[in-house]
Amino acid sequence: MEQNLETVRRAIEGDRFALQELLHIEKPKLYRMAYTYVRNEDEAVEVFQQTVLKCIESIHQLKRPEFFSTWLTRICINEALSLKRKGKKLIHLTELIRQSGAQDFSGEVVHGLDVKEALEALPDKYKTVLILRFYKDLSVQDIANVLNCPLGTVKTNIHRGLSQLKTQLKGVYEDDAGKRFN
Amino acid sequence: MTLERDSIKSAMGSIPLPEDRLDMIIDQSVFNHTVRKKRGSREHVKQLSAAVLVLGLSGTLLFTTPAGQQMISYLPFTESDFTTGSGAGELSRPKEAVYSLDEEVNEEFVKIHFTEVSLMGNQVDIAYQQIVDPEFLTEMMAVEAELFAIDNLGNEYEVPYNSGTAYGEGTREDLHWTATLHDLSPLAESVTFIPMATVSEGTTVPDGFHEIFEYDALKVNLADGSVEIVESPGLPEGMYDRW
């Protein structure tokens, strides 16, 4: 961690090799986060690229090295949401099929969803807090800082997000994965 | 909570990584991407060197170039009336104002429609729409309209956009932008916004095209909000090198 902080400091001071090293470390989580929002490889790569470019352009403004990862996460989420907003009128056919397959008209959950798909299908506000809390391991306070919203909102959204996940997965699995959410 | 954490981590970890593509982005961007500098500081130096001041025997300013005016405005003891000559100690523009606009510039198949300019001290916010002719829009095409600005004193500004939102029944690339110009010279009386649109097939299409459209500019009189479409003073240097 100390070593990472030193690398961040060097990156802030303009050391491009240090920045390259950091971006390679952050790469998997950044890409996977982007993917859960846009749900296709090309757009996730685009979000990743924009995140990298913004990082390069503004890392010199980062005041506290310990927040590098959080700061980068925030850029990534903003880029993903921005891309989604730009393309929101374009609903892919595959997504329509996926959405119509997720629930039948009686509202019953159809079998076949796994945790990843259920997570991807969550509304962005729930998806964001769950990823930050359980994938990025941020504290509730840090999430509130990243999202610039009250602590209570974060807690509520985590609770509701988990509830929705449970609902979507309820009855789907009889094995360990199902029990985790029941 | 540990179980939820494990499940979510496992689910996220199952998303395959396109390692090669991501590595290429990092390695190429880190060493090839040029960080855009604030133009203001560089231009400022040039302008100061070109400033001409003519002072009378009593110390009254008789003549100065626009650059000289700006230089004086930076001095801590300078009253604004010293440079404006108004003697009233007030700027010729309001400190706060909102002006509705309905001006369009068009180039190729991307139209830019300016809808509002607002002043807040030395900050200028502008709202505009980009409207793309659906006949030309392909599935992979991305359009991004952005602005630069120059004031009547010759100071150049970046006008980064804040956010873009989709609207109406147009194409998916029809967006409503807001953008902000910071640190407007206190002596500026008008600002000319210089639009530019980048049309591309995104960053993920091999050999995808990209093209820059240049437009006529929008000149806004900050005192009363009157506007006119004028010939563009030209884009800042290096715009065509960003790709």
CATH topology of the largest domain in chain A: Arc Repressor Mutant, subunit A
**Quantity of strands of chain A, as a count:** 0
**Integer tally of domains of chain A:** 2
Structural class of chain B: alpha+beta
What's the layout of helices and strands?
The complex is a heterodimer of chains A (182) and B (243).
Chain A: H1 2-12, H2 16-38, H3 41-58, H4 68-86, H5 93-102, H6 115-121, H7 124-135, H8 140-147, H9 151-169, H10 176-180
Helix pairs in contact in A: 1-2, 2-3, 2-4, 2-7, 3-4, 7-9, 8-9
Chain B: H1 2-13, H2 19-32, H3 39-49, E1 53-55, E2 61-64, H4 66-74, H5 80-84, E3 96-107, E4 110-120, E5 123-132, E6 142-151, E7 156-159, E8 161-166, E9 175-181, E10 190-200, E11 210-214, E12 217-221, E13 227-230
Description of the molecule:
The complex is a heterodimer of chains A (182) and B (243). By secondary structure, chain A is mainly α. Chain A has two domains: 2-86, RNA polymerase sigma factor, region 2, helix turn helix motif (Rna Polymerase Sigma Factor, Chain: A), CATH 1.10.1740; 93-180, Arc Repressor Mutant, subunit A (Orthogonal Bundle). Chain A is 73% helix and 0% strand. Chain A contains ten helices and no strands. Chain A has helices at residues 2-12, 16-38, 41-58, 68-86, 93-102, 115-121, 124-135, 140-147, 151-169, 176-180. The longest helix of chain A is centred in the N-terminal third of the chain and has 23 residues, at 16-38. With 243 residues, chain B is α+β, with helices and mostly antiparallel strands. Chain B folds into two domains: 18-90, no CATH class; 96-233, Immunoglobulin-like. Chain B has five helices and 13 strands. In chain B, strands 6, 7, 10, 11, 12 and 13 form a six-stranded antiparallel β-sheet that branches. A five-stranded antiparallel β-sheet of chain B has the order 3-4-5-9-8, with no helix packed on it. In chain B, strand 3 and strand 4 (110-120) form a beta hairpin. The longest helix of chain B is centred in the N-terminal third of the chain and has 14 residues, at 19-32. Chain B is globular and about 65 Å long. Chain B starts with a helix and ends in a 13-residue tail after the last strand. The model of chain B is unreliable at 36-68 and 70-90 (pLDDT under 50).
